[in-house]
User: Which sequence fits this backbone?
């Protein structure tokens, strides 16, 4: 079979190559289009030869020892000269294309430069850019963080968002929230959080367990949504496992939650009429319905556990009495039905509870409350596991605290720390140890003068260290450390923007990893991750938003 192919022949050095009518060239067509020709096909098989060198000088065979081989016909139907011509044509075409592209780019640059000059002239005429390095703006375009203003005639800055309290989410998402920047510093009436001029109690809840099969810690975060339902989200291995999910219900109080064993979580909240309800997660599923515990609580519940299977729930009724209900296994609650035990009173505000199973033995339950006064002392009561009895009266009163505040009790091994916020907004602290009993109360307002607008969140990582968190007057997170019996000399500003008291979750004790959550702008949950080291400070870290549409309202027993 033959084919008449056109040929490209070289002209002189001033003309382009010419295409002329070709001569008949024998085609090599094997019977199998995917196979190489063979002698059985009745065709000649060209020997394997190395490719011709594409440069101006043809090297000898010794210079082409690169292992590359190709098929070439014995009768020269692939001609070296023709190949060079084809390469020359291709090179010429490429040069023409590059020249066209370059011409277009130059034209675009000229047009763009003219547009920029026009914009600069407009900017110089109106002079409405922000001043300085992202400070407050003048004119119609306020300056914003990261958009420095300049004198008239400089390149224009992009318009900035209004300065109302809002999160500034960056476009890059992570497995554990979306990186977020908050204004620094936060000021102005339109930035005030609900804690400003008031006092924010704890309105978030968490429960943790460690999976015994893979030693992975799992944290459930809970909040009350704007729809009054309880919502939850799960953190595992440093990442959210899914979005926020509703547990349903209609509740007036913020939730309380706890895990009493591996892969079990219980969450509690007060519904209308003061009825306490709970729901349990176990065997990788939630109860289908909420279960009523009865009662008539006028404030949110608090919960703790002495050991596997044990639950103790307390709250304050409308008369200021502290009520308690407990179970030691399963769904058998004592007292049964809608009844609750009374621990007496009257107290005001919310209560806090801590259960301890010390290494030295002897179970303890510690309850803290505030007197039912606008200026209140903190009172406490203890259940002693050795005698299996409660102290007779509320006692050990101390401090000059806000009556609408909330006490914080932290129990660890043989020590109990009590913390509250004074009428002056300063931190008060007192300690009990098994060896020495109660210490004198300390007013830390004189040494670390920061005014607090939220309840205290505190946790101990051993007997020698206590970390304390609260929201300041600027709606930002503040941190203070007590280390080896000595308080730090200043509150550390960790940033953020809070419409609630902070909620600290120790995610990994060996590494000292802790995440601090709160209700942020727009009802979204926010958090930042820290590491508790050997020093006084944590250092400010990146903040994240975690979605959600949560309420910042709370339920509290009035003093």
Assistant:
């Amino acid at each position: 079979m033959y084919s008449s192919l056109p040929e490209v022949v070289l002209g002189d050095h001033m003309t382009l190559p010419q295409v002329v009518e070709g001569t008949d060239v024998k085609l090599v067509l094997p019977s199998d289009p995917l196979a190489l020709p063979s002698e059985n096909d009745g065709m000649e098989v060209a020997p394997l030869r190395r490719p011709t060198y594409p440069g101006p000088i043809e090297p000898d065979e010794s210079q082409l020892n690169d292992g590359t081989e190709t098929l070439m016909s014995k009768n020269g139907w692939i001609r070296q000269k023709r190949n060079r011509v084809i390469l020359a044509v291709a090179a010429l075409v490429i040069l023409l294309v590059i020249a066209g592209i370059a011409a277009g780019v130059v034209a675009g640059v000229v047009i763009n430069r003219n547009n920029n000059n026009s914009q600069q002239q407009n900017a110089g005429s109106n002079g409405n850019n922000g001043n300085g390095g992202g400070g407050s703006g003048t004119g119609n375009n306020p300056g914003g963080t990261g958009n420095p203003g300049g004198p008239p005639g400089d390149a224009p800055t992009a318009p900035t968002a209004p300065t109302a309290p809002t999160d500034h989410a960056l476009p890059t998402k992570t497995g554990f929230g979306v990186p977020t920047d908050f204004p620094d510093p936060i000021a102005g009436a339109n930035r005030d959080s609900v804690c400003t001029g008031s006092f924010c109690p704890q309105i978030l809840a968490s429960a943790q367990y460690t999976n015994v099969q893979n030693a992975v810690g799992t944290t459930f975060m809970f909040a009350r949504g704007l729809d009054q339902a309880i919502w939850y989200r799960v953190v595992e291995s440093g990442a959210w496992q899914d979005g926020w999910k509703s547990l349903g219900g209609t509740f007036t109080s913020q939730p309380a939650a706890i895990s009493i064993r591996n892969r079990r979580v219980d969450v509690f909240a007060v519904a209308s009429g003061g009825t306490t309800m709970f729901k349990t997660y176990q065997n990788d599923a939630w109860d289908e319905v909420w279960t009523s515990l009865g009662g008539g609580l006028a404030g949110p519940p608090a919960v703790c556990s002495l050991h596997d299977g044990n639950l103790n729930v307390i709250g304050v009724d409308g008369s200021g009495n502290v009520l308690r209900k407990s179970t030691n296994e399963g769904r058998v609650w004592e007292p049964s039905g809608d009844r609750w035990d009374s621990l007496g009173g009257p107290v005001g505000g919310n209560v806090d509870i801590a259960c301890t199973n010390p290494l030295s033995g002897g179970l303890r339950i510690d309850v803290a409350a505030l007197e039912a006064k606008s200026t209140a002392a903190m009172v406490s009561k203890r259940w002693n596991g050795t005698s299996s009895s409660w102290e007779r009266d509320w006692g050990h009163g101390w401090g000059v605290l806000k009556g609408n505040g909330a006490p914080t009790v932290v129990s660890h091994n043989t020590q109990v720390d009590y913390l509250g916020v004074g009428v002056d907004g300063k931190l008060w602290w007192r300690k009990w140890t098994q060896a020495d009993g109660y210490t004198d109360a300390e007013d830390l307002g004189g040494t670390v003068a920061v005014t607090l607008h939220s309840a205290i969140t505190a946790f101990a990582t051993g007997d020698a260290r206590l970390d304390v968190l609260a929201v300041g007057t600027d709606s930002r997170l503040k941190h203070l450390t007590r280390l080896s019996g000595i308080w730090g000399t200043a509150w550390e500003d960790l940033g953020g923007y809070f419409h609630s008291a902070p909620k600290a979750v120790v995610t990994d004790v060996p590494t000292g990893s802790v995440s601090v959550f709160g209700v942020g702008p727009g009802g979204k949950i926010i958090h930042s991750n820290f590491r508790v080291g050997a020093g006084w400070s944590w250092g400010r870290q990146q903040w994240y938003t975690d979605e959600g549409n949560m309420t910042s309202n709370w339920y509290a027993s009035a003093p």
